[in-house]
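ARCHIVE CARD
Drawer: 12
Card no.: 0347
Subject: one protein chain, sequence and derived structure
Cross-reference: see card 0346
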Amino acid sequence: QSLRDFYAPQAEGYDAFRERLLHGRETLVHLMAPPARGRVVEMGCGTGRNLDFFGARVETFQSFDLVDVCVPLLEQARRRAARWPGIVNVVEADAENYRPDHAVDCVYFSYSLSMTADWRKALCNAVRILRPGGTLGVVDFFVSEDSPPPGLTRHGWLERQFWRRWFAHDGVRLDPRHLHALMDRTDPMRIEQHRARIPWLPLLR
């Protein structure tokens, strides 16, 4: 009920409000390459905005499941999904427990892993529903560990504390263990870490 109350008033304007904040979604979509007649699942799909980044490729998939628990946002997703009847399915379910009828070729989280309470269970579930050799993709906000592995970004103590508190006001849980867990559960193909502008805080990145 809390999700419904929070997102219902902003559901129609959700995409426009967050477009300048949620960087890297289009990049993730183009890096993933589900095969023709492949099966794709988005965990925490929100309004289904990422369908637009796939574009005409959606028509080549056997199925594309959009999964979320927030009813007001799913209503927007259903409007988008109507362009691809028989391919795109909008499912009210949580990422921790959703199980499709078949193993899938690609699962991804787009700014949803950091909003999932039991994110470890969600990751395990995503890996479990993938076929052997399938692809797991994640784009999200993050803060680094205190001492990350060589070659990965290290954020200072003040950055880590500030951003975790700032994002927490919007229900986003920045957990330095996210990246570590992803690397443990998969064979990493590509890791990109970037800084980007914050629309409402132009002096910060």
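Annotation on reverse: Strands lie at 39-43, 63-68, 88-92, 104-110, 130-139. DSSP finds eight helices and five strands in the chain.
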